[in-house]
Task: inverse folding
């Protein structure tokens, strides 16, 4: 049996028998990844060049798009590089780097949506104080806190993995999943369970609680306001609610896949389910906000079709 000093790489066993389908998978994954990058970059550029979109909500949206690109980059380049590999090996350092990118993207996603929910709460519930509360300095402070919180939640939850001794190197997945890496360690302690709980609390439950409280207060105010204001609130909040709902579904898929669906479903489904968030969420964000928010939709039209 090996230990941490001898384990220099892991083997991603999910790529074992894809055969000639690797060419089809490579094209599909490459097109999807490039589409995600282009869609989110276009939205960021539109917000950047259109001064009418230099508002807190759209600045926070730009930050969310940056995280979508980061999250996708944590997964797809590795998938693409493994398609034509014979050994499907990935170095321990690269594996840990992927984990860092991937598991900081999750809290950053929820925290970004929590910051956007707070922005909507101030806009709808305290409209006359909005410009004072959500000034430019405070918005960029929120963005800084989002990334700092995400990094610290990762360090607090998973830093112990870097010092583990491993007695195996085969990961039965298509990426470096922390749970499967922990199972390869020579001694799995209660610390692994505690890390999962702490990561879930820090990354999901705390930000989701802020989102829930914000929308409960928004709903309470909307019950007392005019029909026109209700419609405006629905228009600006719908993309946000759909994004949060999709993330919640993705978390359920991830949880079910690792806790219950061990042998009842095909291997391919068990591999894809945990990646649901990384597959669909990065593409959902630019399209949901781009087509549902009137100001962004109008800016898209000016930017893409009326530039000379």
Result:
């Amino acid at each position: 049996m090996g230990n941490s000093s001898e384990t220099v790489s892991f083997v991603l066993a999910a790529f074992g028998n894809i055969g000639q389908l690797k060419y089809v998978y490579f094209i599909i994954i490459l097109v999807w990844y490039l589409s995600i990058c282009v869609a989110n970059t276009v939205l960021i550029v539109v917000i950047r060049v259109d001064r009418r979109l230099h508002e807190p909500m759209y600045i926070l949206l730009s930050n969310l798009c940056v995280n979508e690109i980061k999250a996708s980059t944590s997964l797809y380049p590795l998938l693409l590089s493994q398609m034509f590999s014979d050994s499907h090996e990935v170095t321990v350092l690269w594996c840990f780097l992927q984990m860092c990118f991937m598991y900081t993207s999750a809290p950053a996603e929820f925290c970004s949506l929590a910051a956007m929910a707070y922005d909507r709460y101030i806009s709808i519930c305290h409209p006359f104080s909005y410009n004072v509360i959500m000034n430019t300095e405070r918005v960029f402070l929120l963005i800084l806190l989002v990334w700092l919180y995400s990094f610290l939640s990762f360090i607090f939850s998973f830093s112990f993995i870097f010092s583990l001794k491993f007695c195996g190197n085969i990961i039965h997945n298509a990426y470096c999943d922390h749970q499967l890496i922990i199972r390869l360690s020579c001694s799995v302690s209660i610390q692994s369970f505690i890390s999962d709980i702490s990561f879930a609390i820090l990354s999901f439950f705390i930000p989701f609680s802020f989102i829930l409280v914000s929308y409960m207060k928004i709903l309470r105010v909307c019950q007392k306001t005019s029909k026109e204001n209700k419609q405006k609130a629905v228009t600006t909040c719908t993309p946000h609610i759909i994004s949060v709902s999709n993330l919640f579904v993705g978390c359920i898929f991830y949880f079910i896949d690792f806790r219950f669906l061990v042998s009842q479903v095909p291997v391919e489904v068990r591999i894809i389910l945990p990646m649901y968030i990384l597959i669909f969420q990065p593409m959902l964000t630019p399209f949901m906000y781009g087509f549902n928010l009137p100001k962004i939709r109008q800016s898209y039209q000016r930017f893409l079709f009326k530039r000379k």
Summary: The mean pLDDT is 84. The first strand starts at residue 9 and ends at 12.
